[in-house]
Design goal:
Structural class: mainly alpha
Shape: elongated
Number of helices: 8
Radius of gyration: 18 Å
Distance between the termini: 22 Å
Largest sheet: none
Helix content: over 70%
Order of helices and strands: HHHHHHHH
C-alpha cells in the first residue's frame, strides 16, 4: 500500500521513471520493515505502549515473520512442539508462553530484528537516491 501510494504520487507529480521506482521501492521496504516490527511487538511488546494484547498473532496462528523463521529453523523436538501448538485451538496464555519460549530458544527475535533493519536500510537507501 505504501509503495503503490508513493508511486502514484510520483506519477501524478510527473517524477522521472527512476524516481517513481525509487519511491515505490522505499514504500515497499519501509512497509515490510514496519510489518516485521509489528510482528515483534505482538510477541515481545508492552501492552500499555503497544495498544493491544500481546500474543494475538500466536493465538490465531498468523503466519508472521517470527513464525515462518521459527518453522524454518526448528528441528526435532522444537519443530514437533511448534507444529503441535499450530494444530491446537487452545486460546490461552499457555499457548502464547509456550510458542514465545520456542521463539526465544530459536532466537527468532534477533533474526527478525536483523531482517527489519535490512529492509529499513534498503528503504532509506532508495529514499536518499531520489532526485
Amino acid at each position: 500500500m505504501i509503495g503503490g501510494s508513493l508511486k502514484t504520487g510520483a506519477i501524478i507529480g510527473e517524477a522521472s521513471l527512476q524516481d517513481q521506482q525509487l519511491l515505490y521501492d522505499f514504500g515497499i521496504n519501509l512497509g515490510i520493515a514496519f510489518q516485521i516490527q509489528d510482528d515483534i511487538l505482538d510477541v515481545y511488546g508492552d501492552p500499555a505502549t503497544f495498544g493491544k494484547n500481546i500474543g494475538g498473532d500466536i493465538l490465531c496462528n498468523k503466519k508472521t515473520f517470527l513464525l515462518i523463521s521459527a518453522l524454518n529453523k526448528a528441528e526435532g523436538q522444537e519443530k514437533y512442539e511448534l507444529l503441535q501448538w499450530l494444530k491446537t485451538t487452545d486460546q490461552s496464555e499457555k499457548k502464547v508462553q509456550a510458542v514465545t519460549n520456542l521463539y526465544n530458544s530459536l532466537e527468532v527475535k534477533e533474526i527478525a530484528r536483523n531482517k527489519m533493519e535490512e529492509y529499513y536500510l534498503l528503504a532509506i537507501k532508495a529514499l536518499n537516491s531520489v532526485d
